[in-house]
């Protein structure tokens, strides 16, 4: 249970940081994927008002992170120190360079929010390292970055992996993880077509066909499994790892689809969407948790076994090690 059972889908980021201000003051918080009109910016603006010692922003285009930093310095009284890092999560070289800079500065991180992502690319696209772009950016890049800087996480720190409520639709496609077009997938790796159609996700005819929204949701499942995989590996550091979904928020992330197609969905503002993420990142009642999921600012049962299974998480971890040529 969270410490604020009164928080719900209408709660704002400002309300969350006010409630947990004592757990923000003097800390260092790193957010990936910070740009204006995004959840990263909503989190950053709210956090800055509660006196963290340092905020660290990463962005593929550093000018976007700097724009948010400028807004904070202009609008927040006594703004914190802010460091912007250029990091393209779809490039292992870029991820390693950003991690190296942090490690060289010996910056201790209290809270890491893996927020950056791409969504619903209309055509199958490969990263510079040759991996399907949603999987490369939303999962592999964060997996690599988190492991590289894990030694800089504070004892008792917190890692949040941002996902979506559609994590249950597309299990990990171990037999076609790059969406190359498998003629057949094992039943347990096939998308839940009925659930996908209920969300208005395109024309679905075959498990092997590339679909941008399905590829995005596939990476969301991987993000939840990242929390599961990290939970056991960072337990000795007292680091908690959780996943959280912001709900349906119209941001730059949705530029390829112009907003969700299902008119029955309930939309949130950016500050309401970011509130769930901040509860997961800050609530002291969640400190001993590992792999749990926050939705509408409350712990929510994960209904799909494919993102709870430690065996699946370990199998995905091995895939990530192989793809990144690492041995974490």
From TrEMBL:
Residue ranges the record marks as coiled coil: none
Domain of life: Eukaryota
Entry annotated with the keyword Glycoprotein: no
Pfam family, one: adh_short
An MF annotation (GO) of this entry: oxidoreductase activity
Keywords linked to the UniProt accession: Oxidoreductase
InterPro entries membership: NAD(P)-bd_dom_sf, SDR_fam
Record flagged with keyword Transmembrane helix: no
Similarity section: Belongs to the short-chain dehydrogenases/reductases (SDR) family.
Record protein name field: Uncharacterized protein
Organism: Clonostachys solani
Organism phylogeny: Eukaryota, Fungi, Dikarya, Ascomycota, Pezizomycotina
